[in-house]
Amino acid sequence: MITWLDKNFSSLQPTRAIIMRALRHLRPADRKKLFSEDIPEMRTAEGRWFEAIVYEMILDLSLQTDLVLSVVARGADGPAKVRRAQLGQNGLFYSNIGDVKVRGNGQDLAEVDLVLVDHTGALTFGEIITSPADLKEFEAEIRYKKQLFGYLYGQPTVPFLLISSVDISRTAVVRRLLKEPDNILLTTPTCEDLKALIRQRDLKRSPTRRVKHEKLVSIKDIPPRRPFDYKKLHDERLQSIISTVTSKKGVGELGTPDEIPPIVKKVLFGGLYPSAVRMLDARYPIRIKGKTYDPDTIQKQFSKVILAVNIPDYRPIIYLRTRNKKEYLKMVPNKTGGFKFESRRTPHMAGFFLWLESVQPSLGAELTRELLDAFPAVHVLESVAERKP
């Protein structure tokens, strides 16, 4: 299927009819922003519009071959009502704007722009981009999604489509991805060229919201062949890390392959008891916007301190629950020895926020120290901190 798409995609040029049809996937407010003078707003709306254009092109192309069995509905073709994220929720779901998401214990593990099923029943996913500037974490993200879908659908290989409105074929990331035979790059005219096919007054028309298409299916029509309990897998990984660390096997053992599926990408170890907070702050100071917080200030301003780690790089993270707002401050290692503020986690990140809210204190000072000392990122910080006068 991907070989056929690679050969035939360029034969279908995005016509005015196609790009007008794509407007049905945008909310009225986003359609207005397509010609906005606010560049960030315009680029965001343009990105969503381009995703819809590619989707409409794939719908048309799918009718030309039996190699494409199904196209998974997205955007306006998604369900009118969606299930809100909640703890214990695992599988594939739609967001409120029709995006396809994989959730584990309510947390969004991955989002994909396009999903196709080929004539053998194998699943292929696609990512649609409009700029080469967003490729920094892109390669690791694609490899994780391949692992995730491969596990869920029992596929040894998961084909991947990268569709871009700019030529990114010479970037190092894309060159590495294209070395794999099950990945292909498809390129369209630029967004500027596509936008030249319409006028601003065209956006005032009310596009048809839904279309009937013989190859459209819901993501619910292709449930995972391997149902999973993400919280159970998470807890298995958590216990595996703790066992490795406390048995003094060494940092190198943390990444040793085992029988736990490699789809858990973040482990929440638990909340810190006051003794652990004091130890943490003494060894790795907490700094927020240039200000260093002592243990008493941390206890006063934050109701919960949670230790987590990203996998596979084992980069530690601290989440601080503010007392006066429904938010967590995400703290990451800095170069001077300690943790710095990076971003906020709010109820907008529904599933993950609920998971953070459910975490209770469980870590004492000794185990917290052992865990932090085992993570490579912290060893780097320690050596920097020791060199400080």
Largest sheet: 8 strands, mixed
Mean pLDDT score: 90
The helical percent reads 25-40%
Q: Give the helices and strands as they follow along the chain.
A: HHHHEEEEEEHEHEHEHEHEEHEEEEHEHH
Poorly predicted runs = 378-389
User: What would you call the shape?
Assistant: globular
Estimate the strand proportion: 15-25%
Query: What is the alpha-carbon Rg in Å?
Result: 23 Å
Give the oligomeric state: single chain
Count of individual beta strands: 17
> Structural class given helices, strands, pairing?
alpha/beta
Distance between the termini: 62 Å
Helical segment tally?
A: 13
Describe the strand arrangement of the main beta sheet, using strand numbers. Answer: 12-11-16-15-14-13-10-17
Keywords:
single chain; alpha/beta; eight-stranded mixed beta sheet; six-stranded mixed beta sheet; globular; disordered C terminus
How is this structure best described in words?
The protein contains 13 helices and 17 strands. The protein has 389 residues and is an alpha/beta fold. The protein has an eight-stranded mixed beta sheet. Strands 8-7-6-5-1-9 form a six-stranded mixed beta sheet, with helices on both faces. α2 crosses α4. The protein is globular and about 65 Å long. It starts with a helix and ends with a helix. The C terminus is likely disordered.
